[in-house]
Fold this sequence. Notes:
The protein is mainly α. It has one domain. The chain has 5 helices and no strands. The longest helix is centred in the first third of the chain and has 29 residues, at 2-30. The radius of gyration is 20 Å and the shape is flat. The protein starts with a helix and ends in a 6-residue tail after the last helix. The mean pLDDT is 81.
Amino acid sequence: xxxxxxxxxxxxxxxxxxxxxxxxxxxxxxxxxxxxxxxxxxxxxxxxxxxxxxxxxxxxxxxxxxxxxxxxxxxxxxxxxxxxxxxxxxxxxxxxxxxxxxxxxxxxxxxxxxxxxxxxxxxxxxxxxx
Length: 130
């Protein structure tokens, strides 16, 4: 239960920071300092939030690689929405499949290695003692 509470705390912290950033950008737009576009241009921040949450929640060590992939996809889509660069999706989608496949394989391998490193309850005996 404590891990779930910690996960919610980290997720809320990341969401709060992203909302502060987004609110600051729109406040600067209202002051005429920057052109921020429309709220709909910032949907990739949801991917960034999910990716960061998967990467940094302490009870989800097995999801770091897929979290990193989701985070990087969010960054890519956000930069594309802000016209920092443009890549036609027709040329990009195979790379998307490769990135997602890499994340799934890496999570599986990292999760297996972490489980192998943990002491087994059956070997420790009752009460955690050998």
